[in-house]
Amino acid sequence: MTRILLHEPAFRRIEARLDADARGAEFLRLEAGGTVRLADREIPRAEALPEAGWMSPEMFGAPAFRDWVALLLGAPELKWVQSAAAGFDNPVFKQMVAKGARLTTNTAQSVSIAEYVLWGVLDHLQRGRLHLATPSARQSRPRRGRAGCRPPARCPRRTGGDRRAAARSTRPSRARS
Q: Residue 60 gets which letter from DSSP?
């Protein structure tokens, strides 16, 4: 039987779905304190000998991550590791691959990562930080004249056909008190 090492909370989350699909596997459950359980009994870490490791997203930053890595790197027959990460730029994963294990990654988040990267590129090209820094300033100033016409006093106003009024509105105005 193939022994698969996974984090206890992840096992509890998926165990109802494992019965029918995982008849040829034994699940080594790694608890938060580093205890390894096979079925419902505790086993010594030296006897765990996983052939595969399944990493769930909550393991990043969890104390059990170090124990999970140590058990997998110490396993003489490690064949496969499923990572919750998008890649394997972490040196730990490179060590597992160098040991001969096949590493597979989770691609579920690839669409949202691509959208985030595209947003970042567009934000940079369109100077998004500049726009974000001044929206309240732009909203608090009253708009005068037509868009792009400066100074406001020289902007022609629509007066319904009164050409003299339109001509007067294009003359520079004096400051009013």
A: T
Strand 36-38 to 41-43 pairing: antiparallel
For residue 59, the 8-state DSSP code is G
Looking at residue 140, its pLDDT comes to: 47
The whole-model pTM stands at 0.60
| 37 vs 48: CA distance, rounded Å | 9
Spatial distance between the Cα atoms of 43 and 77, rounded to a whole number of angstroms? 18
Task: Please list the alpha-helical segments (H only) found in the chain.
Answer: 8-21, 64-73, 91-98, 110-125, 128-133, 135-140, 163-169
Smallest CA-to-CA distance from 154 within 138, 173, 127, 130 is with 173
Q: What is the CATH number of domain 2-110?
A: 3.40.50
> Do the Cβ atoms of 98 and 72 come closer than 8 Å?
no
pLDDT tens for each residue of 5-25: 999 988 988 888 877 667 788
Tell me, rounded to whole angstroms, the distance of Cα 95 from its chain centroid. Answer: 24
Instruction: Tally Cβ neighbours within 10 Å of residue 46.
Output: 9
Q: Measured between alpha carbons, how far is 139 from 125 in angstroms, rounded to an integer?
A: 23
Question: How far, in Å, CA of 113 to CA of 115, rounded?
Answer: 5
Please measure the distance between the N-terminal and C-terminal CA atoms of the chain and give it in whole angstroms. 91
Pairing outcome for strands 41-43 and 2-7: unpaired
96: which 2 tokens? 């597992």
